[in-house]
Amino acid sequence: MAVRRAGVCALLWFGSLALAAGQGTGWQLPANAADEKNPVAFTDATLANGRRLYRENCRRCHGPQGKGNGSDADPRLKPRMDLTSAARAELNPDGVVFHKIWRGREKPKMPAFREKLTREEVWTLVGFVQSLREKS
Questions:
Q1: Full residue range of the structural domain in which residue 81 is found
Q2: How many domains does the chain have?
Q3: Nearest-CA neighbor of 133 among 86, 63, 67?
Q4: Among 31, 71, 118, 121, which is most buried by a count of CB atoms within 10 Å?
Q5: Do 50 and 127 touch, CB atoms closer than 8 A?
C-alpha cells in the first residue's frame, strides 16, 4: 500500500512539474507564474514606453497590431502568436506573459529577453501586450 501511495504522489508531483513547465508547450514557467501581478503602474507614459519596446523587440514576429503576422512569423503558428485573442487571455495572465518574454523557449522559437531587457522593461512590455487583448 505504501508503494502505491508513493507512486500516486510521484505522479502528482510530476504532473505539477508539467503544469509549471507550461503543460508540455516548451515554456519553462514557475509554478506561481499565473499568480504574479504586474508591479509597474499602467499610465500613459508606461503605455508609450511599452509600445516602443514592443515595436523594437516583438513586432517582427507578432506583427504591428499583435495579430501574429509579423515579417518573421511562422504562418502555421499565427493563432498561437496572436496577442489580441480574448479567448487566450485567461491562459496568459500578467505573470505568465512576463515569464514567457523573460525566459523564451526553443520550439517554437521565442527569444528570451532576460539579457536584453530589464525586469521593469519586461513588465512594462507586459502591460502593453495586455492592452492589445480584444475584450470578450
A1: 2-131
A2: 1
A3: 86
A4: 121
A5: yes
Q: Which of 49, 52, 32 is nearest to 40 (CA)?
A: 49
The answer to whether position 136 is within a domain reads: no
Cell of 48: 508609450
CA 116, 71, 128, 90 torsion-angle sign: negative
Could you give the CA distance from residue 107 to residue 111 in angstroms, rounded to a whole number?
A: 10
pTM exceeds 0.85, yes or no: no
Which distant-in-sequence residues (6+ apart) come within 8 Å of 85 by Cβ? Answer: 79, 133, 134
Q: Sign (positive/negative) of CA torsion 111, 117, 120, 126?
A: negative
DSSP code at position 92: S
Q: What type of residue sits at position 122? A: V
Residue pLDDT, tens place only, 81-115? 999 999 888 889 999 999 999 999 998 889 999 99
In this structure, what CATH number is given to the domain that contains residue 33? 1.10.760.10
